Amino acid sequence: MKYKFLVLDIDGTVTNSKKEVTPKTLEAVVGLQKRGIPVAIASGRPVQGVSKVASVLRFQDFGSYVLPFNGARILNFRTKECIYSKTLPLHLPGRLVKDARENGVGIITYEGDKIIAGTQPDKYMQIEADINNIPVVWEKKFETYVNFPVNKCLLTGDPVDLEALEPVLAQKYCHEAQVFRSEPYFLEVTPKNVDKAYCLKHLLEILGIKREETVCCGDGFNDVTMIQFAGLGVAMANAQEQVKDVADYITEKDNDHDGIAEVIEKFF
To answer: In which domain, by residue range, is 134 found?
Structure first.
């Protein structure tokens, strides 16, 4: 099979443990784009966090694509044109903040270049802020403040608490939203039927590229759908076991040792 499209998760995949793109991985991804093969980033990060990595990978020079918010939005990174966006029901953030407070966990969403917290900022929110280089603003009247469409909410807290809460909220909002963990301490709430695979399918239709011609690489729970969807689904050596179980290929090298460069050399 001749592969024509590469899709990358960010954290634990194209970046190393220091959240950096290594020189060898950068050279491999840029070299692929120079050969006319488009690349996309599909990440749970907001636009600012995805843009930071996309700029390093020179997406602006080649018209590659970014899918922030687990694919709830799709942007052409060169033109900054939004070609797809799906948002949560307007009433949902107000209901979710009550769930968060009742269960002793945190909640955030995103507005422009800032994170909006509905509960007292915690260390997990600070992780999200540091990753994306945007500040956290605590709005104590979150339920009335967030009166605009949002692509996702993120609940934060101790992994044990979120593991218990995940099936409860998934059932409660099964007709309105997707509920899943992207990290043990992050519980994502995104629009119904929105995940990396769903939005990737939409992008492939626009580009005229077949699913079978696509390589998707990831390491986390929220990468499972796109790895299953891809013509070649790749799990990083450092991936969660659940991700490795559904992958067609597991890299020999992890994200700290240029696993993505290995994929590009082997399959492109």
So the answer is: 92-191
Q: Max Cα separation, the chain?
A: 54
Q: Is the pTM of this model over 0.90?
A: no
Q: Are residues 62 and 96 in the same domain?
A: no
Q: Check which CATH number belongs to the domain holding 178 and give it.
A: 3.30.1240.10
Residues 192 and 168: their CA atoms lie apart, in Å, by 16
What digits encode the pLDDT tens for the residues 56-108? 999 999 989 999 998 999 999 999 999 999 999 999 999 999 999 999 999 99
Name all contacts of 118-123 with Cβ < 8 Å and 24+ positions apart.
Answer: 118/93, 118/142, 118/143, 118/146, 122/156, 122/157
- Distance from C-alpha of 261 to C-alpha of 23, rounded to nearest angstrom: 10
Comparing CA positions, the residue from 208, 226, 231, 173 lying closest to residue 13 is 226
Sequence-distant (6+) residues with CB within 8 A of 250 are: 234, 235, 236, 237, 239, 244
